[in-house]
UniProtKB/TrEMBL annotation:
Residues 1-18 form the signal peptide. Residues 105-200 form the GmrSD restriction endonucleases C-terminal domain. Keywords: Signal. It comes from Neurospora tetrasperma (strain FGSC 2508 / ATCC MYA-4615 / P0657). This is GmrSD restriction endonucleases C-terminal domain-containing protein.
């Protein structure tokens, strides 16, 4: 009987260890139905690239709370068992990247991705904003704009919109599209016809 109990406990512990890390869920992700309604209301027009985009026009990262800046805030928000030092830098923890399903235990392997890239925002309306508003956009923790993801996947995405880049995990298409639409809707940014078509297809996987 004892051996049976021990075996059962070991099996249970093994299943816990084998369980996948929880995926982060930033705030403000709409339902698929609401995302489709929001998408339909967005202005469709070609991007306007005036050639003046610079990342410094979207100041990051700002102080969010105490000694924590935006990056550190998102790492703590989206990680599991995150331990930080007095400067709010993550010294340990686990991060599951929703874009590709990879799990990381070093914060240096994790980038904070802007769901709608800064340059994409620039060419879809943010070039007319004040620097203050662009700073708010770049550090927006109240919408699904900031995601903790695998660094090289973030670099692969770069400033591409959904018609040019999609997450490696097709199972994440639905959430990705809902988040993208929500950010564009919240910030009244435009979309291209190709972008709208790609988002529609992705929302149809929900």
């Amino acid at each position: 009987m004892k051996s049976f109990i021990v075996a059962s406990l070991l099996a249970a512990a093994s299943s816990v260890l084998a369980a996948p890390a929880p995926m982060p869920t930033p705030p403000g992700i709409p339902t698929a139905a609401n995302a489709k309604t929001q998408l339909a209301s967005l202005t469709v027009k070609p991007y306007v690239d005036d050639g003046k985009y610079e990342r410094d026009l979207f100041p990051t990262w700002i102080t969010i709370s105490g000694t924590c800046n935006t990056r550190e805030y998102v790492l703590k928000r989206d990680g599991t068992n995150v331990v930080t030092d007095s400067a709010c830098s993550a010294t340990s923890g686990t991060w599951a990247s929703p874009y590709d399903g990879s799990v990381w235990t070093a914060a240096s392997d994790v980038d904070i991705d802007h769901m709608v890239p800064l340059k994409n925002a620039w060419v879809s309306g943010a070039n007319a904003w004040t620097t203050s508003k662009r700073q708010q956009f770049a550090n927006d923790i109240n919408s699904p704009q900031l995601w903790a993801v695998t660094d090289n996947v973030n670099q692969s995405k770069s400033d591409k919109s959904p018609d040019a880049w999609k997450p490696p995990l097709t199972s994440f298409y639905c959430t990705y599209a809902k988040a993208w639409v929500q950010v564009k809707y919240t910030w009244a940014l435009t979309i291209t016809s190709a972008e709208k078509s790609a988002l529609t297809s992705m929302l149809n996987t929900c």
